[in-house]
Design a protein that fits this description.
By secondary structure, the chain is an alpha+beta fold. It has one domain: Rubredoxin-like (Alpha-Beta Complex), CATH 3.90.820.10. It is 31% helix and 28% strand. The chain contains two helices and three strands, in the order βββαα. Strands 2-1-3 form a three-stranded antiparallel β-sheet, covered by helices on one side. The relative contact order is 0.22. This is MbtH family NRPS accessory protein. Residues 2-48 form the MbtH-like domain. It comes from Streptomyces sioyaensis. One of its GO terms (cellular component) is cytosol.
């Protein structure tokens, strides 16, 4: 593993996160969230912001079922 590699954090339409090498093209369906750094820095950011692992569509269905 290249310890000097730069990563960026991506998020998809389901509010799921992924780490992606910063110099690679972002795949369809994903958007950069503006966080870039080492793998550890990006992973720490994801740990901080991704507090609900359920996909957005599931969260919305569960919220609607409860109302």
């Amino acid at each position: 593993m290249d310890e000097n590699a730069r990563y960026q954090v991506l998020r998809n339409d389901e509010d799921q996160y992924s780490l992606w090498l910063a110099d690679l093209e972002i795949p369809a369906g994903w958007q950069a969230v503006g966080k870039e750094g080492t793998q550890d820095e990006c992973a720490a950011y994801v740990d901080e912001v991704w507090t609900d692992m359920r996909p957005r569509s599931l969260r919305e269905r569960m919220e609607n079922a409860g109302s």
